[in-house]
Structures are given as C-alpha cells and as structure tokens.
Design a protein that fits this description.
The complex is a heterodimer of chains A (333) and B (541).
Chain A: H1 49-64, E1 69-73, H2 77-80, E2 87-88, E3 94-96, H3 102-115, E4 122-128, H4 129-134, H5 137-146, E5 150-156, H6 197-203, E6 208-213, H7 217-228, E7 234-239, H8 243-246, H9 253-263, E8 269-272, E9 275-279, H10 288-292, H11 308-325
Parallel strand pairs in A: 1-3, 1-4, 4-5, 5-7, 6-7
Antiparallel strand pairs in A: 6-8, 8-9
Helix pairs in contact in A: 1-7, 3-5
Chain B: E1 12-13, E2 25-29, H1 35-39, H2 46-54, H3 58-66, H4 72-78, H5 82-86, H6 98-112, E3 126-130, H7 134-145, E4 149-153, H8 162-165, H9 174-185, E5 190-192, H10 200-206, E6 211-214, E7 220-221, E8 234-236, H11 237-242, E9 255-259, H12 263-274, E10 279-283, H13 295-303, E11 307-309, E12 312-318, E13 321-329, E14 335-345, E15 348-351, E16 355-356, E17 370-371, E18 374-375, E19 388-390, H14 401-419, H15 456-461, H16 472-479, H17 493-497, E20 503-505, E21 512-514, H18 524-528, E22 534-538
Parallel strand pairs in B: 3-4, 3-6, 4-5, 6-19, 8-15, 9-10, 9-15, 10-11
Antiparallel strand pairs in B: 2-22, 7-16, 12-13, 13-14, 17-18, 20-21
The chains are: A alpha/beta (333), B alpha/beta (541).
The complex binds flavin-adenine dinucleotide (FAD), thiamine diphosphate, iron/sulfur cluster (SF4) (3 copies) and magnesium ion.
C-alpha cells in the first residue's frame, strides 16, 4: 500500500470511515460534508461502478483543490446518466464535449485559465475507456506530450457501455461483448489485442500516473489527492465494474473490483515521471477463475465444461502482472 | 422566466428523478445476535461492551458489562469463556480475548472505585436469598437494582461460596473477590454470615419475605467406595480446598494421588503441589480427551509438574500405596476393567469425584421437585412452590460460576415480575450473526494478545496469581479485534459505497438511514457491510 496504512483499528484503513480515527485521518467519503459531485437521482444502473468511481474521484479532487475544479466530460454512460437535459446530477462546474475530445477540451480550459491568470482553478478531464483508449487517444497523447496542466481520469468498465456494450481497446481477452460474440473456436475478445493505457501514459514520462479501483477507496483518494499536488499532465485509470455489461450482480461491483486486484488481473500501482514508485500488494491471493465465474461475459468459459485452456491463458496474464509489478507480499500485512 | 437561446425546458437537478421506484428489494439495517453474546451463560452483551472499550471508554464498557454481570473481575479470571469458543474471529485468525478484556475492565473498576448505578426507588418488597455464592450474589445485585430489599442468609464465615472455598487463590486472589462482593453489599444488600438455614419450611412459615431465592450450591463431595486399609489416608477434595481458607491445611505427605478428572481434581492437585508435595498424580479412568476438566486447567497443571495416570481406577488404598486397575475404553468410550493391576506410591488419596447438593433444608416442603439429586425449576427459575425460586449448582445445568451468575440474573428478573404481579417475558432473540454474513475482507489481520503467566517455579511454590492481566494498550488492542458481529460499528462503509448517495449519516452514535426515495436496491451496502448489519428484503408492492 503506498500510503501509511492505519493499523490495529479493527478495520484499519480498509473501510470508508472508522469512528475510532480522528477527523483528519478519515476519508473524504466518510464525511457528511463531502461534495457529492454527483448527486441523487442520476440514472446509472443499479450498482454502477462508474457512478461510484466518479463521485469518489471528484469529491477527492474537490477537497484537494479547495473546491476549485472544472471538469470536462466525454460522451459515455457517465455523461448520459447524469445529464439528460434538462436535468443534471453535477454539483460542480462541469462541461460536456464529445466522445473523443475531453482531453482537448481540458487542455483548452487549462490554457484559458492560464491566460486569465486563474492559477487557483484546476482542471479535470474524464472519459470512459472508449473515450480514453480508442477515440480520445490522440488528444490525450497530445495532452501528455505537451504536459498540459490537466488531470485526466479514465473510468474503465472495459467496453462501450453507453451504446450497448461494444468492444473497446480495454476489453480483456475472452470477454463477450456485443461485437466480440461468444462463438467460434476462440469465443469473446481475442488474446493479444488492446492497449494498456497506464503503461502508455508512463511512456510519455508525465509527472504522475496511477491505477485504482472502487474497492479501495482510501487508495483512490490518496492518488487523486497526490495527483492534484502536481502540475502538468496526470493520469489516473480507475477500474469500475459495470453490472450491465459484465453480466454481474449489481451488489458485486465492489467485490469484483477487489477480486480484479487480488487475482493480479488489474495491477494497482502508481508511477512518477515514468517509473513505478509503489504497488498495492495482493492481500489474499486468488485464482482468476474466482473472478471470472460470477460474470456472464465469461460464462462461455465455464459452460458446458470449464475451458481450462482459456482460463489458463487468463491466469498467465495475471501471473505475468504479478511478477512484472511485484504484486505478492513476502509477509502478510 | 428568461431562458438562454434555444433552451425550452427549465434546467433543474436530477433530484426530481426519484430512482427509488426502480427498486424491487430494499436494504434495511438490523441488529443481529453476535455468537459470543449467544454463548455467554451470564447473558452478557459482549459485543456491546467491547464497542465502548474499543473507543477507550472503559468506564462505559464496564457499566454496560455490569448490566448483566456484577462480577467482571472474578469472571475475567475464572470463567471458562464459552463466548470465545463461539467467537467468529476464531474462524478468521484467533478468537477475541474477551475474557482478558473483561479481566482488565474488572480490575480497572476496582482500582478506580467505580460503583454500580444506584438502585431504583424502594419497592418495599423483601426478598430472601439463601446462599452467598455467585448465583445468590448475582440475584441480590439485580434485585437490589430493581429497588427490592435483599437479605442473604449464608452458612459460611465469609461470602462467595465456591469462589472462595473451592477456587484456589492462585486463580482468584481474595482481594479481587472481596472487592466485588463489597460493592454488592454497599448497594444495601444485607448478608448474615454463619447463618445456615436448616429448615426451609420454618422460613416459609414465618412469612417475612415476599419471595425466596435458593442458591445453596452443590457442596458435598461425592463419595466413592474405595476399599482401604486402616492406615490409608483418604480426603475429600471439597473439604481439602475449603481448609485452605484460614484453617491449617491437612498433612498430605510427599506423594499425593488425586482421584477424578474434573476441574476440582486439577485444583486439588495444583494446591497439593504448592503445599510441598513432590509428586501429585491425577488418577482418571478415561483418557485426556474425555476429561471433564478444561484444557487450560490440565495444561497449567501439567506445566506445574502434576502427573497424569490415564485409564486407571483405584482398587485399594493402603498406607503409602494404592492399587490401580488399568482400564480400556469400549467402542462407546466407556471404561472397562482389564484385570491388570499396578501399584502407585501415595501417602494420601484425595477424592475429587464430583459434588452433590445438600438437600436437607428442604425437609418436606411440599411442591419442590427433586430429580437426579437437583431441584427442578421451570423456565422462570421457579420451583413448584409459588414465590420460591432456585438457581446455580443446585438446579440442572452446567456447574460454573458463570451459569450461576446467569441463573441469578434470570431469577431476579422473574422474581421482580412476580413481585410486581406481572410476567417476565424474555426479549425477542435476534437472528444469529453467522460468520458467513460478515465481509471479513475489511478486518485488519491481528493475532490475539495473550495474557502473561507467572513463571513456573513460582507457581509451584506460591499461591500468587498465575495469569496476569493485560495492560491498557493491550486491552485496547484486544477490544479492537472484535468484528462487531451483526451490529453496526459506524465504519461508514455503507455510506461510502452507495453509488446513489442514498445512505444518510446521522452522526456519531446515531448510525445511518436509507433514503428510499433514491435507493435503487443494488445491495452493495449489504455485501460490503463488514459486520452483517444490513439485510435485503423484498419490496412490498
Ligand atoms: C474446586 C472448584 C473449582 C472451580 N472452578 C471453577 C472455575 O474456574 N470457573 C467456574 O466457572 N466454575 C468453577 N467451579 C464451579 C463453581 O464454583 C460453581 O459452579 C459455583 O460456585 C456455583 O455457584 P452457586 O452460587 O450455585 O453455589 P456455591 O458457590 O456453592 O455457593 C453456595 C453458597 O450457599 C451457602 N449455603 C449452602 N447451604 C446453605 C444453607 N443451608 N443456608 C445458608 N447458606 C447455605 C454456601 O455456604 C455457599 O456460600 C469450581 C468449583 C470447584 C469446587
Ligand atoms: C464520434 C462519436 N462516435 C460514436 C458515438 C456514440 N457513443 C457515445 S458513447 C459511446 C461509447 C462510450 O464508451 P466508453 O467511453 O467506454 O464509456 P462508457 O459508456 O462505457 O462509460 C459511443 C460509441 C459518439 N457519441 N460520438
Ligand atoms: S451501463 Fe454500466 S456504466 Fe453504464 S450506467 Fe449502467 S452500470 Fe453504469
Ligand atoms: S468478533 Fe466480537 S462480536 Fe463477533 S463473536 Fe467475537 S467478540 Fe463477539
Ligand atoms: S457498513 Fe459499517 S456503517 Fe454501515 S451498517 Fe455496516 S457497520 Fe454500520
Ligand atoms: Mg466503457
């Protein structure tokens, strides 16, 4: 864990709050005064990880910036479920743009603020995985290259959910989507495709890159706060399960995020200037099967019989992450 | 209203959209019964008092504990803690050291001189309690808190029953016992010592009292016929241990044999060791796993050099030696004689074969039913005689201090109801907080803090207390290992993890509320509540 974990307090820093901690040790989300950047009445599905991830991240950014942020948002679920005109769920300055250009809009806002001498106001741009790794990739890479003073947050639910679960460059191998059907000799998304945007971002050697999940709030808040302490281009990639697209129980959203990290399939780490500076160790190692089984997008791996070969290939991906990032801890925490 | 160009609808917040209508199931907060609470024979709300100890409010923790048990310092030493056996944390790493925290709180209360809440206004009712053992004292305490006048007739020279005349000092220092009994006396409980009730019917006939609680224990050592030569030295464990309180201890000789496999046998053996016996051998007819003595006691006895002779019975006792017959177990686990014999050198033999109730005082009181040597009571602890209640070792059940305390409390509640002309109804039992209902991911890994023990050399020669208490930081750590099974401990998880902001935080100590106008019923809160304090229920449409 990159931040100082709180020990011996029954639940340590694993839970959102903890009545035994002093106020300044508590998370943003535990506070009755949190911004609720995203307010009641939004139309995200039951158990939407993206709605949760966005509130977690933006509330933390609000606190870190003294409530001085402007947010540019790409099209995607996060935009559609929050702002069906004339309603809005946003309680922060927020601007909608297009599916592919939130990084460019963020860059523009940052330039305008600089021109006006408003150094106190910070810019956040955000998008789904489609808006980040596919159509929005060019503007984002440009933003990284220019080191524009924007924090870009990708909410990765591993497909184009808003338009009916089409594959994206972040869809994992073997996952079924509307465009990677579970038919043929290699059902679901192909192995060997897709992009790892956190690593690509690191290759740009921007000041700060981090990954996080909605399962570890304290870690996510820490990373947003840390990102806000830098100027220049920063990138946070948050895994946000989507019950609709993944075919998982709405109540399993956090559990699945946790399992994604614990299996090693989704490494949680942070990097400065292109170098990994810390990784979240696996607490209770888990075979990938446990993570795959509850999701209907992987159902074809288990029916009629378990497809051990494909499951093995997915396990190999996890194992590679584990050794590449050093995810195992020598001693239990 | 003036609107911007091309805008036709008024802009507003999404709060207009009451997403609660999507719901088919709703989360509800509830309290479940922690397994520790369920297992405690004294009916303590363990999770409840640990909750306060966790925040360092030891006085409040102690007060919460005292609602059910007036003897925490005693209990923290002698209770066999079935609560810990049931504790859910045992399935995670190691059970919570409930008993050691209780020990700590009990000692702290004595040190700080905390006193129980004052009694309710006097009811004018008179209750007689016969016997000042744990059961009688517990009943006295609870009745006094209800405002009744309480008198205890106690046969012994000092109150405490087997806590004083059975359990040795090295497990329960007398200052601790005295302090907790004095606290009860200070509430206005009058104890008449050296006041043995010989004839219950006479007391009943006098009619001084509105209700009576009998708690005379089971204090006669069971006799087994052991053929013995004239100069064989045979003693009874109960009398032997009793004599440790102020009388001159009997001469045992160098080699002592103890016959029996219960806790009393262990205490007799350990006491013999401390009195200077070079050999103390427990003779038991079955095997260790079938011994009624608790594991810890056997362990501690062995540490102190007590030897065990399993699968053996005493056939004949003579001066300086015993004839033992070897046994085997049949398939039902019953011991059967083998016809093989051996000798054991022993200067004296202490019989620790269980205790019986001295029923003499009952005389021919009509309505009191005795079966299997114990007095029968209904679920309200009342005997067949209206207004005459009984509890502790003299009624059916496990014979422990804790059971006695629990009986005393239950009897007090029923006596109170009886005196008020009502019926005591037990509060509804909450559903059990089973391990499977917890989300244990959230708990930090933390092994149990073990209470230190006196070094063995001193244990063999002195009556100093063997098990030492925890200090403040250890006790706090241990309390904080509690998972708070089934009862919200305000971790804010539900408040945080709701994607629809539909959990309302009500402030410290006030817990939370669902905003059903917006809750979509995803159930994440239920899944992510560490302690299982939320349940999904079908929406009634
Ligand atoms: C050696 C030994 C060790 C033990 N160790 C433990 C232990 O570690 N943990 C544990 O939980 N339990 C232990 N027990 C069991 C425990 O002590 C008893 O279960 C418990 O004390 C029973 O409480 P009670 O109030 O029913 O009876 P008692 O404690 O026996 O008290 C009965 C009281 O009634 C008085 N009395 C009897 N007859 C009359 C009368 N006619 N008139 C007036 N007064 C009368 C007696 O003098 C006595 O004070 C031990 C028992 C023994 C013998
Ligand atoms: C140029 C363009 N092409 C296609 C679309 C349709 N469209 C809107 S959102 C979306 C997919 C969004 O996917 P992602 O960015 O992963 O966000 P999610 O909905 O999964 O959160 C698509 C294809 C569009 N709005 N603009
Ligand atoms: S489709 Fe998925 S990402 Fe979109 S609102 Fe529903 S749960 Fe959230
Ligand atoms: S963890 Fe706490 S509440 Fe649960 S059984 Fe153990 S002591 Fe009781
Ligand atoms: S999640 Fe935490 S705060 Fe919510 S009910 Fe459970 S224990 Fe209480
Ligand atoms: Mg997506």
């Amino acid at each position: 864990m990159p931040f100082q974990p709180i020990k011996f307090y029954q639940t340590g820093s694993f839970v959102v709050g903890n009545r035994l901690l002093s106020e300044d040790q508590r998370s943003v989300q535990s506070s009755e005064d949190r911004t609720n950047s995203l307010t009641l009445g939004h139309r995200a599905c039951q158990g939407c990880g993206e709605a949760l991830g966005a509130r977690y991240a933006l509330d933390a950014a609000m606190r870190a910036s003294g409530n001085q942020i402007v947010v540019a948002n790409a099209t995607g679920c996060l935009e559609v479920f929050t702002t069906p005109f004339p309603e809005t769920s946003w309680q922060i300055p927020w601007i909608h743009s297009l599916f592919g250009n939130s990084a460019a809009v963020g860059t523009g806002i940052a330039a305008a603020l600089r021109a006006k001498g408003r150094h106190d106001i910070r810019v956040v741009a955000q998008a789904g995985d489609g808006g980040t790794v596919d159509i929005g990739f060019g503007p984002l890479s440009g933003m990284f290259e220019r080191n524009d003073d924007v924090l870009f947050i990708c909410y990765d639910n591993e497909a184009y959910m808003n338009t009916g679960v089409q594959r994206s460059g972040a869809t994992p191998p073997a996952a079924r989507t509307a465009t990677t059907d579970a038919v043929g000799p290699h059902p679901g998304e192909d192995f060997g495709k897709g992009k790892n945007l956190p690593l690509i971002a690191m290759a740009h050697e921007i000041p700060y890159v981090a990954t996080a999940t909605v399962a570890e709030l304290r870690d996510l808040e820490y990373k947003v706060e840390k990102a806000m302490s830098f100027h220049g281009a920063r990138y946070i990639h948050v895994l946000v399960p989507c019950p609709l697209g993944w075919g998982s129980a709405p109540s399993d959203t956090i559990r699945l995020s946790r399992m994604a990290k614990e299996t090693g399939l989704f490494p949680v780490f942070e990097a400065e200037g292109g170098d990994v500076i810390s990784v979240s160790k696996i607490r209770h190692p888990l075979p990938v099967e446990e993570y795959l089984r509850p999701q209907r997008r992987y159902q074809h791996l288990f029916r009629p019989q378990p497809n051990t070969e494909t499951i093995g290939r997915i396990q190999a991906i996890a194992d590679k992450n584990i050794s590449r990032f050093g995810l195992l801890q020598s001693e239990p925490e | 209203m003036e609107r911007p160009f091309a805008i036709t609808l008024e802009v507003g917040t999404s709060r207009h959209n009451k997403t609660g209508t999507w719901r088919v199931e709703r989360p509800v907060y509830l309290d479940r019964l922690p397994p520790c609470n369920e297992a405690c024979p004294a009916g303590e709300n363990i999770q409840g008092w640990l909750y306060h100890a966790e925040s360092g409010d030891y006085e409040l923790a102690w007060r919460k504990l005292m609602e059910d048990n007036p003897l925490p310092a005693v209990m923290g030493r002698v209770c066999y803690h079935p609560c810990q056996t049931a504790c859910n944390r045992g399935k995670l790493d190691e059970e919570v050291g409930i008993n050691s925290v209780e020990h700590f709180l009990g000692d702290l209360a004595i040190e700080k001189g905390w006193v129980p809440e004052t009694a309710r206004a006097d009811t004018g009712k008179q209750v007689l309690i016969i016997g000042a053992g744990p059961s009688g004292l517990s009943a006295a305490y609870h009745l006094r808190r209800q405002g009744h006048s309480v008198t205890i007739y106690e046969a012994g020279a000092n109150p405490g029953g087997m806590m004083r005349y059975g359990i040795p000092k090295y497990r329960l220092p007398r200052e601790v016992l005295d302090a907790e009994i004095q606290r009860i006396e200070a509430m206005g409980v009058e104890i008449f010592l050296n006041h043995k009730v010989e004839d219950l019917s006479a007391v009943l006939a006098e009619g001084h009292f509105d209700a009576i609680f009998l708690a005379i224990g089971a204090e006669i050592g069971k006799r087994a016929y052991v053929p013995a030569g004239e100069s064989a030295r045979i003693l009874d464990a109960v009398n032997f241990l009793h004599s440790m309180e102020g009388q001159t201890p009997p001469l045992l000789g160098r080699r002592v044999a103890i016959y029996g496999g219960g806790n009393t046998a262990m205490d007799a053996a350990r006491t013999a060791k401390r009195l200077g016996a070079t050999e103390a051998v427990v003779v038991y007819r079955r095997t260790r796993d079938r011994m009624p003595a608790h594991d810890i006691e056997v362990e501690e006895a062995v540490e102190e050099g007590v030897e065990m002779r399993w699968l053996s019975t005493v056939k004949h006792a003579d001066a300086g030696k015993l004839l033992l017959e070897k046994m085997t177990l049949d398939e039902k686990g019953m011991p059967v004689a083998t016809g093989e014999f051996e000798e054991l050198e022993a200067d004296s033999l202490i019989l620790a074969l269980g205790q019986e109730v001295d029923l003499e005082l009952l005389g021919n009181v009509e309505g009191v039913v005795v079966a299997d040597g114990v007095v029968q009571v209904d679920r309200n602890m009342m005997t067949g005689v209206p207004g005459l209640f009984a509890g502790g070792d003299m009624v059916p059940g496990d014979r422990t201090v804790t059971v006695g305390v629990g009986h005393g409390k239950l009897a007090a509640k029923n006596i109170d109801a009886w005196l008020r002309g009502t019926n005591y109804s037990r509060p509804e039992r909450h559903e059990l907080a089973a391990f499977e209902m917890l989300n244990t991911w959230y708990y930090s890994d933390a092994p149990q803090t073990v209470r230190a023990k006196l070094d063995v050399a001193r244990r063999r020669s002195t009556f100093d207390e063997v098990v030492q208490g925890l200090d403040e930081s250890n006790a706090l750590f241990e309390a904080r290992r509690c998972l708070s099974c089934g009862n919200c401990f305000e971790c804010d998880n539900c408040y945080g993890v709701c994607p629809d902001n539909s959990v309302v935080k009500l402030g410290p100590g006030l817990r939370y509320e669902f905003d059903y106008d917006y809750c979509k019923g995803c159930g994440i809160c239920v899944q992510e509540c560490p302690c299982g304090a939320i349940r999904m229920e079908p929406e009634i449409i």
